[in-house]
Amino acid sequence: MLTPLLLSHCSQSDEEGKEDEHADSNDPEQMFQNIQFQKEIIANIRTRAWPMRRKLKALKQAREIVLKYEGRLTRTRGYQAAGADLLKKVSRLLYNIVVLFIPWEMRIKKIESHFGSGVASYFIFLRWLFGINIVLTVMTGAFIVIPELLAGEPFGTTRSKTIPKEHLASAQDLDTIWSLGGYLQYSVLFYGYYGPVRKLGSAGYRLPLAYFLVGMAVFAYSFIILLRKMAKNSRLSLASASDENFTFCWRVFCAWDYLIGNPEAAESKGAAIVNNIREAIVEEQEKKKDTSLAVLISLRILANILVLLSLAGSIYIIYFVVDRSQKLELEKPELTLWEKNEVVSVVVSLITMIAPSAFELVAQLEMYHPRTSLRFQLARVLVLYLGNLYSLIIALLDKVNSMSMAAASVVSGNLSDSTAFMATISQPGETSLSTLVSDISISENHNSTIATIAMVLDVNTSISTSKVTMATMYNHTVMFEQNKQKKPDECWETYVGQEMLKLSIIDMIFTVASILLIDFIRGLVVRYLSDCCCWDLESKFPEYGEFKIAENVLHLIYNQGMIWMGSFFSPCLPAFNVLKLIGLMYLRSWAVLTCNVPHQQVFRASRSNNFYLAMLLFMLFLCMLPTIFAIVRYRPSQHCGPFSGQEKIYDIISETIANDFPLWFSKVMSYVTSPVVALPALLLLFMLIYYLQAIARSLKFTNNQLRMQLQTVSYRRYKVPGGDRKPDQQDGDITSRESSIRTPSPRPNGSVTNFQSPDRRGNGIRTITQSASRVKTARATFAAGAPRSPTVSILHNGTCRSKSYHHVAYNPPTRYSSENIHSDPLYRKTIRPLHSAEAAGIVTAQSYVGRRPYTTRYVIVNEHEARKKLLRSATRVPRHFRAEDPGGEIVELIPRNTKRYTPRAPHLHGHPHRSNPPQSHLSDEEEEEEAGGKRESRRGSFGQTHRPRSLSDLQQPARFYIGERLETKLSMASKDSHTARGRYGGEAQKGDWEDMETHTQSPARHPHSPSRLVHSPPQGPGRRLEPQVKPKTSRSKLEPSLTESDSASLASSSDQQNSSTDQYIQVIHNKEKYLKSEARQGKLAKKKSKASIDLNVSGSKDLVCSNV
Amino acid sequence: SGSNFSTITVCRELHEMGFHVSHSQITRLYSRFTSLDKGENGTLSREDFQRIPELAINPLGDRIINAFFPEGEDQVNFRGFMRTLAHFRPIEDNEKNKDPTASEPLNSRTNKLLFAFQLYDLDRDDKISRDELLQVLRMMVGVNISDEQLGSIADRTIQEADQNGDNSISFNEFIKVLEKVDVEQKMSIRFLH
């Protein structure tokens, strides 16, 4: 029965087709596809350029198949397929729509195209923060603010929700609103507004509990989302790492998007390409940069010292002004908070303006890559900002401390049955004494403590009232005076919230102002005044502003830190921040596009940049600390907020557990929280962390290995350019084999040669480590595709043999002359022309070889050439060839059945093996080989190819030169062979070296005992023969020249040859370039090579010693 | 008027190229051809191509337009139009296991790459020289980058791709460079389906 495949010109796949069809009938999926295919044929048959008869025939068959099989499929199947198609289309459409809705995507892309990925990374970060704040807003809004608004007691009903009468008049003053007092203070914006009712409304919403839990959840969510993002980023960077190949070529050839039809998009793309190329230039310059190390290090040390000094200086200044302002508060209590803090804020903002620029200057000393220096800059400015923030935090906590202590002392005063509490305070700066009299009337109800504090100033009373309280009340005065305008019922949480919100607002104003002033006005001035100025404003002094990534990113982080810090005390802070970020996004992007110029040095910032996130995480931690500290340390205000009346804020949890959960739960909780459980749990966590860490490490290792393998495989896959490669049957097989083969993973350091030949006989893995003097790193892994590698098993049959073999292969400098032949990529070029030069002698060999697809291939990855080239070569010689090396310089390839006399062979490194056929050894090997062959033939990968039996056409001996001699020959050759071949030549050359080594070494070891040389012959000559074998097939097919006895069993072992596995050699080459002149040296090298070979012989002796 | 004739002959011709298209697809392309043909003389001129916005704004647009015109001619008929477009036909699955003896279709990976290569190879000497590369770069980046910087980029590009040390990029080297690029996918237009 004819098949669909026949229809598509696949004449020879008739049988396959039948098989396919047979399989089809069982698998509904394939059957369905088959039917679809047939239908397609029916639809398109008219357009085929076939004779009518054939068309009719094909049509009939297709119809038959459809009729026959269609019934077997259910109708739903068809619907399913159609549905899947539809789903795919819809999902794509949806995806496109979703992309449309990614906020500011277009804006960011536009910025990226003009300003590079560095600037874009700021906006992406901003957008990400925006997302986080949205979630935080939803959390606080949904669980705190809205329930309070809906079910909480309305404004003005309770004391904490009423503006005190004395402030009512000024509640709508701009001044009050500006300082977030008045109506704003008594609103949902702040902690104090929320009621302490345990169950709210008819539904019994537990607002205090929710308040606490949401406050914690804000931190928890931020932590989780940050860590997840970081993990994702590191995964991304792991996946996208490497692949630095052909960066420039890709940038040049693949830059343009040919689908762009919109002029604006084209402009953006053009700008992006320019940026891309500039980034590449920067990267390149950074790579090239080489100043002397000592100078560089000393410069960097100097820079760091400078930075440390300026940091210390600025922190001291901040400390100094904060201290001064605190003193000022004491001395001049009539000043408002703003006036007192004026100096501090001016100084702080001055420092934050000047110091980053100073750091930038210092960073130029260091001469880091722009990306690295950006990070340094970020870290330094972060420290600066932290100093700033923490000075504020400490001041705040100080006040909070005093407030809660006041509250505490109120309570203690109450307990010590004093109804009136008077404190007298001496003001050191003034002679008059100010006495603070606090009248506190406290109702017995603990929950609604009402404290009235009256402050009496300028009252001269005796100092002796109470000296002890004076000291404690020292701070209180400060606090009380600050809040003179406020109600005496203090609510420190609200105060903190107010401060944070104020800070955030001021920060926003400053940002807007600085954008307008520094960027916009400056841009305007530079743009329009440059004509009427004596120097060029645009290129000289003011210039246009650059977008400072470091400062801006840090500003975002700082801003977010304030939000985290204040969100517990001011639940609407995240909502405010969302608005702020939106405004910032539009303002910044507008400013960037209108007033800024791209940075001088555009550099690539990776999307998966964890550095910003790490800083943000650091910030989050630092901002969480004071909040947690305040929650844990201080007593909540007694008459405002959801936790009023509790000893500690977190008591709400234990209270809820005690009251609202069943008894057993609280019991369980008490067990769980007891050290008996907690300690082991902690231990377990530690163990888990360690375990996971270990796993992560090993996975990383494996990852690297796999990546190496992938690279090698993909190189091999594309190795042969499609143009000069004839698609023949073996290709597919080879590729499939290749992919199944282990590839070596090169190590940057350490000259390790690894050979793995996992074959059936359990030769296992032999690892030979040796240090080559000139080949810095050479690690080659021979991975013989395990079971079907009889040839490999021959090669590696004896450990000692393989050892010597590899040894030789990878230690060229010890034996060869000073040229490092192995490692030279240029060398290939010189070898290329070989074929034509030798053509006369090789013709037969070529044609012969062309028929044999079965060889052991050595893939040599040339690390030195940036892993670009993966070479593959055949390593085996046809069996009936023998290598001969009569002069020490010439290797001759002789058909086995040709009697050729080689007088000098035995005592040179030629092939003593030939004179002494090691029958006994080889017979074993052959058996194995044959067994392997049978195994292989059973597998039947491609048994059609045969080894030619007739050797008569090989009479003409092929001459080969090795070493420099070879090159001589090569250089004489014509140039018609193309690069690919050249590559193979080079590769083959390597093979040559290897086997030549084998030859040289063996005699060296046992100068006059040829019987010991058994091992080397099989692989030796084969490899040497490669170059000539290449020309036609672009892949050499050679076999090892075995001994005469072997040639008798040609037929039986031919299959085995098919199955020979690929072997990979990965060589990391010596950095030292092989001299180009080497190729030109031509004939002069003759003598040299001779000498060098002699050298080798002696060298190998040493080697033997070390080896044994 | 000549539409029928053209369609049929072109259809046959395309079949000879191993290029299976349906009648309707040819008709669609022909209508596109005629809509581009402002002179209505059955051939397209360079100006006709330059009216296509995608080509007009493409820095390499002129090169692409050039690819439509055989050496020394400045008009292209429908047949030539189709032959150039054939490079961009997607490679279909059932074509991959085709008869190996058949000549390579125009839309094979190699031919697609060759098409791209010739965009850069101005003097058609089968090599992309440094000067040619510089021209391309200049077209793409305009005046934004200095000459010496562009020169160093071109040098680096050649250095990366060059394997035989002739300071230019041959087609084989070009293939090697782009071996990881999904050319089959990227240089395909689904205009025929």
TrEMBL record, chain A:
Bias kind Basic residues: ranges: 897-914
Domain called TMC: residue spans: 491-606
Molecular function GO terms recorded: mechanosensitive monoatomic ion channel activity
Biased composition (Low complexity): 1041-1061
Subcellular location: Membrane
Biased composition, class Basic and acidic residues, residue ranges: 722-740, 989-998
Region: Disordered, residue numbers: 719-771, 893-958, 972-1063, 1082-1108
Similarity annotation: Belongs to the TMC family.
Protein name per Swiss-Prot or TrEMBL: Transmembrane channel-like protein
Organism field: Oncorhynchus kisutch (Coho salmon)
Gene designation per UniProt: TMC3
TrEMBL record, chain B:
Pfam family, one: EF-hand_7
Residue ranges the record marks as coiled coil: none
GO terms of molecular function: calcium ion binding
Entry keyword set: Calcium, Cell membrane, Cytoplasm, Lipoprotein, Membrane, Metal-binding, Myristate, Nucleus, Phosphoprotein, Protein transport, Repeat, Transport
Regions that span the bilayer: none
PANTHER family cross-referenced by the UniProt entry: EG:114D9.1 PROTEIN-RELATED
Protein name: Calcineurin like EF-hand protein 1
Organism: Oncorhynchus kisutch
Gene name in the database record: CHP1
